[in-house]
Amino acid sequence: MKHHQSGARKLACLSALLTPISCAISAQVAAQVEEGASNYSIEEIIVTASRREEALSNVAASVAVMSQEKMDVQGIQSVEDVARLTPGLNFSRQSYFSGANTEISIRGISSGVGAATTAVYIDDVPIQSRSLSFSSANVYPRTFDLQRVEVLRGPQGTLFGASAQGGAVRFITPQPSLTESSVYSRSEVAFTDGGDASYETGIAGGAPLVEDVLGIRASAWYRRDGGWVDRVSHADGSGEENANGEDARAAKVAVTWAPVPELRITPSIYYQKSEVEDTSGYWESLSDPDGGKFINGQVQAQPVDDEYMLSSVGLTYDFPDMTLISNTSYFDRDLQQVRDYTGFDSALLNPTQPYVTIDGQIATGYFSDKQENFTQEVRLQSLDSAKLEWVLGYYYSDEQQSARQRNQDYFYEQLLGNFFGLDFDAMGWSYLPDGGIYDTSFDSRTKQQALFGQMDIALTDRLTFTLGARAAEFDVEHFQTGTGPWSGGDFTTDEESSETAVTPKVGLSYQYDDNNMYYVTAAEGFRPGGAQTQVAVSTDACRAELAALGLEETPSQYDSDNVWSYEIGSKNYLFGGRMQVDANAYWIDWKDMQTSIWMNSCGSSFIDNTGEATSKGIDLALQGQVTDTLNMTLSVGYTDATYDESISGGGVIIAEEGDAVFDGPQLMATLSAQQDFTFAGRDAFLRVDYSYAGEGEDDNPDVYGYDPQLPPVPETKLVNARLGMDMNDWNLSLFVDNVTNASDGLSRFHHFEESPLYTNTSFRPRTVGFTTTYRY
Question: TonB-dependent receptor plug domain: which residues (predicted)?
Answer without folding.
Answer: 57-168
